[in-house]
Design goal:
Bound molecules: fe (ii) ion
Number of domains: 1
Helix content: over 70%
CATH topology: Ferritin
Largest sheet: none
CATH class: Mainly Alpha
Number of strands: 0
Distance between the termini: 67 Å
Strand content: under 5%
Length: about 170
């Protein structure tokens, strides 16, 4: 690992590594939450939403890769045991024990909102001090904002569909 990488980062590196490991744990849990939820999901628009959730899952895995690379560049050790994921993550893993599409979407939405806070916080912490982490946090943040927007749109569409059905029954 490059000494210069640490030297120029101009901040409390061990604290940054701690936060990055928290983010790493959150990404793995988000990946699994999407991945397993997409497979269990039942209800309207399932066939359209499922591939999109699997795409989000793949993107969460891509985030885990970006974060792990930065941890290593900073001289840290990424979490080595999945048992640490729940301990480090500040975002909840919500067990998808109700497969109804809106419940699954709401769980994923909660995760996205937590991720937005995570990367907003990381970007702010790294700003003007650690440009590489700052840039990485912004890249991921933009994806999470898009994920949140996608999910909100599906929830709106589902609500609309339910409203239309109610009107037809009247
Ligand atoms: Fe992510
Ligand atoms: Fe996301």
């Amino acid at each position: 690992m490059g000494k210069k990488a640490v030297e120029i980062s101009n901040l409390d590196v061990s604290l940054m590594i701690q936060y990055l490991n928290e983010a790493l744990a959150e990404e793995w849990l988000a990946y699994y939450q999407y991945w397993v939820g997409a497979r269990l999901m039942e209800g309207p628009m399932r066939s359209e939403i499922e591939p999109e959730l699997l795409l989000h899952a793949t993107q969460e895995l891509g985030h885990a890769e970006l974060v792990v690379n930065r941890i290593i560049q900073l001289g840290g050790t990424p979490l080595l045991n999945p048992e640490q994921w729940k301990l480090f993550a500040k975002c909840d893993y919500e067990e998808p024990n109700d497969p109804y599409v809106e419940v699954i979407l709401q769980q994923n939405l909660n995760g996205e909102r937590c991720a937005i806070q995570r990367y907003q916080g990381l970007a702010a912490l790294a700003e003007s001090k650690d440009y590489a982490t700052h840039q990485m946090a912004i890249t991921i943040l933009n994806d999470e904002l898009e994920h949140e927007h996608d999910i909100e749109d599906w929830i709106t569409d589902l609500e609309r569909m339910k409203d239309d059905m109610r009107k037809m029954r009247l």
